[in-house]
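step=encode ok
step=design start
structure_in=
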């Protein structure tokens, strides 16, 4: 027997220690999951129970009047801000992700990736302050829809860029080689082959960015502020309403009508995000079925 070889007793001791470590790790993971699940379920229970209790037809037919009334103006404003931000961020994020993925070794591409990583970690309130200093005050747009959309677009574009890059890098090299072997140019290969192959993951990144934009408050307080009226069609010099402001502001008011609007707004945002996610999953599953058939 070699001097350095472990005896059967030592092997059994190591196996017992590994089994004990594995069991402790699983227990710690299970406890962490239970704590997170409990917190999530508690939040969802509060939002759904109190939100459904506050729902009524007036919420969807009338605008906010002080700390009472409905939420139609806030629903309209949230939809405008979210889709306006996506309209600006999706082309920039997807095209930037394509560039960084395909030309990742170039100096400028590395710089773009580094800037995107930095922007992902910047607090949202910093984007709001930047939007306030540049668009609200320096450009003279005042609190407006345009300032809010551009600020949110700057915040969510890095998410879309990085998810698009990772999705493209996840495509197998054989597919790229097959495309080049058939004579496809790099542009045709990316647009007609690679993007179609990784479309579910790119769409997931866009949905993540959409959920982030719908749940933001701090950047909009600095750039959009609040309005009790409907949007009048002006992109600048006019504030708009949005649901997250109702949650942030009205929950601190000492009135039951304000609390009801805050819980109703929280419920609507939760339902909107859930509905968008379910519709996206359904469409993606149908796309995968068509590909396999």
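sequence_out=
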């Amino acid at each position: 027997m070699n001097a350095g070889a472990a005896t059967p007793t030592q092997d059994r001791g190591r196996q017992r220690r590994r089994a004990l470590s594995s069991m402790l790790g699983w227990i710690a993971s299970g406890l962490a999951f239970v704590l997170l699940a409990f917190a999530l379920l508690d939040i969802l229970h509060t939002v759904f129970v109190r939100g459904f209790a506050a729902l009524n037809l007036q919420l969807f037919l009338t605008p906010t009047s002080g700390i009472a009334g409905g939420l139609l103006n806030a629903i309209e404003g949230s939809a405008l801000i979210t889709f306006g931000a996506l309209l600006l961020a999706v082309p920039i994020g997807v095209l930037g992700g394509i560039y960084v993925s395909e030309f990742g070794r170039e100096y400028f591409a590395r710089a773009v990736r580094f800037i995107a990583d930095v922007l992902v970690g910047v607090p949202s309130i910093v984007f709001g302050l930047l939007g306030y200093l540049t668009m609200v005050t320096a450009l003279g747009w005042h609190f407006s829809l345009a300032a809010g959309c551009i600020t949110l677009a700057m915040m969510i574009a890095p998410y879309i860029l990085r998810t698009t890059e990772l999705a493209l890098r996840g495509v197998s090299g054989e597919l790229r080689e097959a495309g080049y072997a058939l004579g496809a140019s790099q542009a045709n290969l990316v647009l007609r082959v690679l993007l179609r192959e990784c479309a579910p993951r790119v769409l997931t990144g866009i949905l993540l960015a959409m959920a982030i934009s719908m749940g933001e408050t701090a950047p909009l307080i600095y750039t959009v502020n609040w309005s009790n009226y409907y949007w009048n069609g002006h992109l600048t010099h006019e504030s708009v309403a949005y649901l997250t402001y109702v949650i942030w502001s009205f929950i601190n008011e000492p009135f039951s009508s304000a609390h009801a609007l805050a819980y109703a707004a929280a419920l609507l945002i939760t339902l909107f995000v859930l509905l968008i996610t379910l519709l996206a999953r359904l469409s993606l599953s149908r796309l995968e079925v068509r590909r396999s058939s």
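step=design ok
step=annotate ok -> The CA atoms of residues 246 and 262 lie 5 Å apart.
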